[in-house]
Structures are given as C-alpha cells and as structure tokens.
# Entry
Amino acid sequence: MALMQLLETEPYHEITVQQILDRADVGRSTFYGHFHDKDQLLVWGISNLERDLIALTDKEMTRRTQSARRRTHAADARERIFVLSLALFEHAESHKGVYRSLKAGGAWYVVRAGFEAMLARLIQPEIRKLKNVARPVPSELLLHFLSATAVEVLTWWMERSPKLPAQQVARAYRRLIHSMI
# Structure
C-alpha cells in the first residue's frame, strides 16, 4: 500500500526504499526479510491484484449467473474472460496515477510482464473449458494472445486515451477478442 501511495505522486524510479519504509512505518530489516528490492515488492503487489481480480470476477459472475438464464460451460468461460478484463480495466481506472508513474518511472516492463503472466494464469482455466469449441488457433497461442492483448489495450489506454471509461475500454477489448473465443 505504501508503494502504491507513493506512486500516485512520484515516478517509480525516484521512489527509494527508505520512502517506502517511512510511509509503511516498517523497519529496514523487516522489508529486506521479505523483499530484495522495490521491484520485488512491485511484483508481490501484482499477486495481491491477482487475488482481488479473482474475488471481483467471482462476485460478478455469481451476480450474472443469478440474473441470467443458465449458459453453456463455454459461454460461462467466455463471459468470465470478459468480466476479468473489465475488473482489470476498472482497477487501472481507479489507479491511473500509479500506472502513469510506473510508465514514466521505467518500471512498466516489470508490471507488463507480471500482468501478462497473471492474466495467463487466470485465463488458462477458461481456455480449458473451451476445449470442445472449434478455434482457429492452438490453445497456447490463444492464451498468449488474450493475456497480451489485454495488457496491450491497457497500455494503449493509459498512454493515448486515459479519459475513456473502463467500461468502454473493456468493450473494445471484448470486440478485439470476440472472434477468437
């Protein structure tokens, strides 16, 4: 949380471990007992985001299932991928300053790789549910495409059209990947 708060106001490369320690009110030995550096703390933050995205997606899928007719297994898998992407974009929307700071501070490469890996882990079970659906590409390529495309859309949004609402960005992502799943 301390790193996220600092990222709202400063570029990543200007933030020191000491600033993080001061903001979090923890000692140096405690920090280094858990993390090697602020990059590792950043990656750990992505794992927290992963848990949050799972919880948000599960909650929204439960709501949608209760309010809709029963869908097929494949339709549920597709919808879960779309709901997951919406949760990611909504998170980004609520933390635009952090995303800009990471980009300006040179840490986007760490976050980008972490986001792609996280999304691949979250999307993979849904791809397995689609195994009986005819697809024009192998499952591994589809998984890579879906996760990389979500991160690319996120990057484009933050750099070029940050005023677009998350819902609109999620709809654009949905249109981009619709023919693939």
In short: The CA atoms of residues 12 and 105 lie 4 Å apart. The radius of gyration is 18 Å. The longest helix spans residues 38-67. The chain has one domain: 38-180.
